[in-house]
Each structure stands twice: as structure tokens, then as C-alpha cells.
Amino acid sequence: xxxxxxxxxxxxxxxxxxxxxxxxxxxxxxxxxxxxxxxxxxxxxxxxxxxxxxxxxxxxxxxxxxxxxxxxxxxxxxxxxxxxxxxxxxxxxxxxxxxxxxxxxxxxxxxxxxxxxxxxxxxxxxxxxxxxxxxxxxxxxxxxxxxxxxxxxxxxxxxxxxxxxxxxxxxxxxxxxxxxxxxxxxxxxxxxxxxxxxxxxxxxxxxxxxxxxxxxxxxxxxxxxxxxxxxxxxxxxxxxxxxxxxxxxxxxxxxxxxxxxxxxxxxxxxxxxxxxxxxxxxxxxxxxxxxxxxxxxxxxxxxxxxxxxxxxxxxxxxxxxxxxxxxxxxxxxxxxxxxxxxxxxxxxxxxxxxxxxxxxxxxxxxxxxxxxxxxxx
Length: 377
Known about the structure:
- By secondary structure, the protein is of the alpha/beta class.
- It has helices at 17-29, 39-58, 72-86, 102-113, 131-137, 160-167, 189-192, 241-252, 258-275, 303-312, 332-337, 359-376, and strands spanning 5-6, 66-69, 93-97, 117-121, 142-146, 173-177, 196-200, 211-215, 281-282, 293-297, 315-316, 348-352.
- The protein has two domains: 5-14 and 255-376, Aspartate Aminotransferase, domain 1; 17-252, 3-Layer(aba) Sandwich (Aspartate Aminotransferase, domain 2), CATH 3.40.640.
- It has twelve helices and twelve strands.
- Strands 2-8-7-6-5-3-4 form a seven-stranded mixed β-sheet, with helices on both faces. It has a three-stranded antiparallel β-sheet with strand order 9-10-12.
């Protein structure tokens, strides 16, 4: 059997061994409820506070402005729905983009069902939102703008700082989903001028089931869970300390040159495909994209057939967001970038690189992919 090669890190990442150790150690040694006042609770509280401090520092925020959640989806929902509901007295207009993760898009669609007016911004052929388009859709009753930092399907990096500057004098709060950016791009919430930011641990070689929402103090957010005073009433429920400690460990393992390492994998991958004569087109612009993601269309091919044959060759890749796995519909991201009947939508595959890879695997993956393309043609 051929060695399996994992090229789907944008969907999820393997947990780092040191992260697994951190989670296991916490499970074995620290079981107290952080809200309890006895020594077991105080020990847990100390570890929780340490983790919050580490995560806050990673985005140059104050620790009291970081709220733990069960992951990116909950954090996005809390940011979008919670902020909208809490600020309805100021207006009912929300702006987002057509290429957001479904955790934002479906939250926005829900808000429409209860009377909010949502504008879904278009993007260009590279998947980028134009700042002037944001400006042209701003209204006096706009209360929230949500634009992701890095697109999860094509890796497009959005002009977050510029949008933040645009909104600086407006009442609207600014949220960005930073799930695909965290750990690869520098994030300073003050410099970016964002009011809300969401992160998930399982994209950075941490555990599934944990993430956080950054919310600056001036933002009113209505919780959607009730039952306790944890997380300063924004997210009640006993904190999942082992998972939180795992996320903290994952963050402590960040490397300054990680983006360059993954970009080298991407470059090697494309060079190998070129050498092997594989014909493809790149969806998006690599000069303004996550170094860990490349989305390719193979002319005349079919997505389902490609993925099935790649899997038979031991190659794990994706047709887009893992949250729409199994869907036969075209990618909403590529549909926003291109015309609905564009051939590129039928054969688009996302390859994403990370901790599970090395140069030898990248070369072997390109070779197997070339064999598949040749066989299908």
C-alpha cells in the first residue's frame, strides 16, 4: 500500500505530539472546576488564566478580551448573531462577503429571517473584496461588517487593515474570521482595527472542539447560551481546560518561519506538476494568498472523479470547505469569483500544506497526481 499523503490542512491539522501531551497531562493532573474556590478549582483557574494570557498575547490583545468557545463556528456565530442582536437599537444592516465561511454566511442568513438586512459583497476574480465596495454599501444603520482574513478555499488575503481604517469613524463593529490566518500571518487587533476576531485550535495543530473570540470592551454581544457566569457571561459553561491547554501549547509552538516553509512546499508542488506536464489553472492570486493553500482547476476533469482517484492513490485533498464535504454543488467561493458556468468550477481541487508534510511527500504527491490526470485524460 502506498504511503498516504495529507494535503488537506485547511480542513484540519494533525495534533502536534507536544499538544497531545499537554492535553493528556491536564486531564490526568488538573480536574477541578475553574469556578470552584477550593484548591482544585484555584489550580484550574491558574492554568486557565495562563492560557488566556498566552492566546491574548498572540494577537496583541488584553487577556480580559479573549473568550473561549467550542471552536471557530461558535465564535463566528457569537460574533455575528450576538453582536447583531445586542445592537439592534442602532440599526439592522449587516455587511459581509459572498465568500465567507458558512459559519458566517449561515449566521447572516439566519439574521435575515428575523428582520435584519444583509448585504453580501461581491469579490473580484482573485476572491478579494474591494474596500471601495465596502464603503459604497455602508449606511447609517449598518451595525456590523464581517469579512474573513484569509479565505479557506482559495487562500485569498483580504484587506482587513484597510477595511478597519474605513470603519474607524463609523458606528459599525468590524469582525474578521481569522481561522485560516492564525499562526501564519501576523495578527495585531489594534493595528488591524478589528473589534471582533475568531480563531479555532484544530487549524494550528491543536485539538478540535476549542477556539476563542476576541471582543474589544466596547462591543456589546448577546450570548446565545445561558446557565452560568463563565467567560464574563458571554459564553457560559464550564471551560474545557484540557483542550484550552492544548491550544495554548499549539500557540507556543508557532515558528516565525512557518509561512516560508509552507510557501516552499507550495512552490515545490507547482514546480513538480509543471515538470511532469500537468495542465492546470490557479484559482486566485498566489501573491496575495495564504502560503499554505493552493486551489487548482484541471481542465476537462470532474471534481468527484479527481477526488476519488486521488484518494485511491493515497492523496488527501478537498474540493473546498470541509463543512460542505459531500456536497455536489459548486463552491460558493469560486461561484462568486467566476461566472456560474465557468469550467473551472467543475474541476477545482484545494491542496493545503502543513505539519504532516515534507519535501519528499510533496514530490511524490505531484507524481501521483500527474499519473491520475494522465489516466483520466
